[in-house]
């Protein structure tokens, strides 16, 4: 018993001070992309259709798997993890375009969810990577509960739907049924490239190309999988707990 207490004291406070203090991501982290104007060297194509030469060069962060197999000289990844948005179009990055962030929910929803926001998660055919990085947020290192955000077992007890995976044909009905079981008002989060538009499975007949083909989405969190910092940034921004 004394050994356990001594060990706990020695470990100290383990939860990240974020958002009170900024996060330092490792250099190899692939975050917000800087897109160069399209040129001859950008002839090769992205294997997942995330990059196009249209409008002088465009990267769709919703489709991007951050694999770094980009056409030569087109994209440079920064270590900025703040990628979540509330408007799907804001995931399109052009040379010199504005870096958009998730916007706060309307005041009436913030009043309801600001101190207690419960999600029911639906894994709609994903590989478990997005689920794993979502689960990390509930560990001592991130302690999502300190913001009043938790995952619950029943949609009847939830304020929102949290979706991972490309939404396979077989999961589409379950997703819709879960959405309908959550009382109004409710919000929907699409976590990861698959949930945003099918990820590497886009346009295959067995998937529905993401959540917003079935239910409306309030928060898009890009990445394959998104880093926990990216997820937390999006959640705190819609609750207006991070500004700027
Ligand atoms: S990182 Fe991968 S998915 Fe994203 S644009 Fe480059 S090649 Fe395409």
UniProtKB/TrEMBL annotation:
InterPro entries: Complex_I_20kDa-like, NADH_UbQ_OxRdtase-like_20kDa, NADH_UQ_OxRdtase_20Kd_su
Protein name: Ech-hydrogenase-related complex, small subunit
Gene3D superfamilies named among the record's database cross-references: 3.40.50.12280
Entries under Pfam families matching the protein: Oxidored_q6 (PF01058)
Keyword line: 4Fe-4S, Cell inner membrane, Cell membrane, Iron, Iron-sulfur, Membrane, Metal-binding
Gene it is expressed from: ehrS-1
Names of required cofactors: [4Fe-4S] cluster
Family according to the record: Belongs to the complex I 20 kDa subunit family.
Source taxon at top rank: Bacteria
Entry-linked PANTHER family: FORMATE HYDROGENLYASE SUBUNIT 7-RELATED, HYDROGENASE-4 COMPONENT I
Domain NADH:ubiquinone oxidoreductase-like 20kDa subunit, first and last residues per copy: 127-237
An annotated Gene Ontology molecular function: NADH dehydrogenase (ubiquinone) activity
